[in-house]
Amino acid sequence: MSISGESSHVLSVTNRRRRARPPALLVALLTACALVAGCSASAAAPAPAPAAPPSPAQPAPTSAAPAVPELPGGGTEVFPGRRMAALYGHPGTPSMGVLGEQDLPRSIARAKDLAADFQPLVREPVVPAFEIITTVADRAPGPDGDYSAEMSVDELRPWVEQAGKAGVYVVLDLQPGTTDFLTQAKRYAELLAQPHVGLALDPEWRLEPGRRHGVQVGSVTAAEINRTSEWLAGLVREKKLPQKVFLIHQFRVSMISDRQTVVTSHRELATVLHADGYGTRQEKTETWNALHAAPRPPGLWWGWKNFIDEDEPTFTPRETYAVRPESPVFVSYQ
Questions:
Q1: For residue 180, which of 214, 231, 140, 130 has the smallest C-alpha distance?
Q2: What sign results for the dihedral spanned by CA atoms 73, 242, 82, 74?
Q3: Omega into 141 within 30° of 0, i.e. cis?
Q4: Residue 203 in contact with residue 249, Cβ under 8 Å?
Q5: d(CA 138, CA 108)
Q6: pLDDT tens digits, residue range 25-79?
Q7: First-last CA distance in the chain
Q8: Which residues pair with 131 in a beta bridge?
Q9: What 3-state class would DSSP assign to 135?
Q10: How would residue 208 be classed by pLDDT, with cut points 50, 70 and 90?
Q11: What's the CA gap between 81 and 125, in Å, rounded?
């Protein structure tokens, strides 16, 4: 029976018994009935609408920086933890190095084969690499008068992008003629903003006005190198990139003035002094030793170049890694 039904029943019983009750008891019964009726009316009223569900919790704002992309071979620091074995040259020009002796797909395959030749000799991964001559020293001044022929970003892009997809590191090599390294490096900021792309400076082809390639060997000041490395380190910070290879070629001490003041403290860069030059085993060893003996800054990594056609004979991978006082972390083949 409902509460309303119960109220009617109580009222009916009360009416039948009214004469038998004393007045005081009647008043009490009537009061009780009134209370029951009130309860019945309240119960019959529609229930209030349920409260709206709370809004879904919004994700708390975060200031965490996006993850830094990894390098080929894993991690975000170049050295230690990996070595690199690189094909050096200019796309489509076999005479300038082994990189230009085949098309892009076969260059990727050849770089991987080269890295595989070195891998059994060390525990850390040996990453395949390209060192692409991006600006080519030229005996003619060219339209801009700097004696350097520059590849366009569009010409380089397939090499850079396909290499990255294949796990191949890329180093853009500059031969600037009479302009400066920083000016040329900035031309390729779009490509250098990719996580697997580093930069190489070749002072042999950095000329003072009035000098000519093939007549004089070029040189660069530490100050110019430092301006370039400062800009590159800033690009790494701005784009939140992993550490980059910053490589400097040298085969004569005179090619870098004040070399001991070259800044190697940028955490964003792994600065590599790359021993260049071809010849007999004795000549290459003498060059290596002379570069180590000259004043130099702390914190340098060391690289080595093998010339397949010009060295007499070419060092094997085992012989290359066995050179001392420091085994090279970056080896290129021209």
A1: 231
A2: negative
A3: no
A4: yes
A5: 27
A6: 233 322 333 333 333 333 333 433 333 433 434 444 444 555 899 999 999 999 9
A7: 102
A8: 88, 171
A9: strand
A10: confident
A11: 7
